[in-house]
Amino acid sequence: MDVIRRNTDYTIRAMVYLANCSSKQAKSARTIAQSEGIPYELACKLLQRLEKKKLVESSMGAQGGFRLKKRPSAINLMEIIETIQGPLELNRCLMNLKACERVVQCPIRKKLAKMQKELNNELKNTRLCDLITAKSKG
Amino acid sequence: MDVIRRNTDYTIRAMVYLANCSSKQAKSARTIAQSEGIPYELACKLLQRLEKKKLVESSMGAQGGFRLKKRPSAINLMEIIETIQGPLELNRCLMNLKACERVVQCPIRKKLAKMQKELNNELKNTRLCDLITAKSKG
DNA sequence: ACAAAGTAGGACTATATTAGTCTTATATGA
DNA sequence: TCATATAAGACTAATATAGTCCTACTTTGT
């Protein structure tokens, strides 16, 4: 996968899964992993990263697990993606000015920067709740 | 690089280089490679791929080399990118339906498909001549 | 005819990135 | 105190990308 990689995909699924649960009861990494087809050890890591970014909260020990820390309407796709992949970039030179010393790249860069901005906006405007609602439709 | 990878970047530079030349005289792969900072052997391969897609034409032997096969206004960024990287995809499931069996991906897919379309349009609307003109500005 | 300057293209190697696993430690509840 | 959890670093595997090597073939000029 390019912009949305496999681990990100796993993570989005996990978040949607949590969003569909009653938030009272924490879900264990194992449950989430099994339900969403994510390798268990990997699910642990991904969930830990979500926890560090305060997208979910964890409780240790028996009956522990993970639950959303915010309402689904307060979480957008962009922050989930960036939690796992880091900043999204269409072309390395957009982020890393040193990589762009060639005159030729500049006009391209301008175009790409515009596209990048539009992409970011779309992703920010897509909230976790949008994904849940849509799910029930089809 | 993500959407535009290094080899694609090399290739765009090579095309811009050719666009800036008088089309009468073929430029050797070696000349292009040196001018644009591309490893020579790699430049050969990239140019060969452009040739197969009829974006450039080659002539063999001494005094041979490559030149654009169409006017710079008749070549867009999208075709250059796809010649090197193949079809652009934001998320694998957009292209490969089998990869998307999970209900959860569907709403995401819809969003991504829209973004993908916009991106494609931008890339198609950017012609090689746009990159040259912009170059002279700065 | 032959040497030099080119492209053509397959096979191979190296590098980087991403995904996944293993292991050990620690916390909690019954 | 045991079973069930998370925490987290180190390691390995898989994949994708970039780059190199080698041989063959073509054209031009002498």
Structure description:
The structure is a homodimer of 138-residue chains. By secondary structure, chain A is mainly α. Chain A has one domain (6-137): Orthogonal Bundle (Arc Repressor Mutant, subunit A). Chain A has seven helices and two strands; from the N terminus they run H-H-H-E-E-H-H-H-H. Chain A has a two-stranded antiparallel sheet with strand order 1-2. In chain A, strand 1 and strand 2 form a beta hairpin. The longest helix of chain A is centred in the last third of the chain and has 21 residues, at 105-125. The first copy, chain A, is elongated, with a radius of gyration of 17 Å. Residues 94-99 and 134-138 of chain A have low confidence and may be disordered. Chain A binds chain B through residues 1-4, 9, 12-13, 16-17, 36-37, 77, 88-92, 102-108, 110-112, 114-115, 118-119, 122-123, 126, 130-131, 133-135, 137-138, and chain B through 1-4, 9, 12-13, 16-17, 36-37, 77, 88-93, 102-108, 110-112, 114-115, 118-119, 122-123, 126, 130-131, 133-135, 138. The first copy, chain A, binds a DNA duplex (30 and 30 nucleotides) through helix 3.
Q: What is the gist of this entry?
A:
The structure is a homodimer. With about 140 residues, chain A is mainly alpha-helical.
